[in-house]
Amino acid sequence: MPGALALARACRASSDYPAGLLAAEAAWVAAADDGQRAQAAVERVFFTFRLGQLPALLQQAPAWMPLVRAHGGDQAFETLRILALAACELGRIDQALPYAMEAHTLAEADGRPAPRAQSLMALGACFERMGDPWQAERLMRDALALAPADGPPRDRFVALNNLSAALIGAFYLLRGSGTQAEANAALARALPLAREMQTLLPLLTEPYLNVHAQGNLGEVLLHLGHAEEARSLLAAARAIAEQVPLTSQVQRVRCSMAEWALLHRQPEPARDDMLALLQEEVLMPLTRLRAHHAVYDAARQLGDAALALHHLERRTELERQRAVQQLRAQSEQFITRVEAEQSRRDADRERRRAQEMAQHALRDPLTGLGNRRELSQQLPPLLAEAQRTQRPLALVMLDLDHFKRVNDQHGHLVGDAVLVAVAQLLRQQLRNTDLLARTGGEEFLAVLPGASPARALEVCERIRAQVQAHDWSGLAPGLQVTLSAGLASAPPCEESVLMARADAALYRAKAAGRNRIELG
Question: Does pLDDT of 342 surpass 90?
Answer without folding.
Answer: no
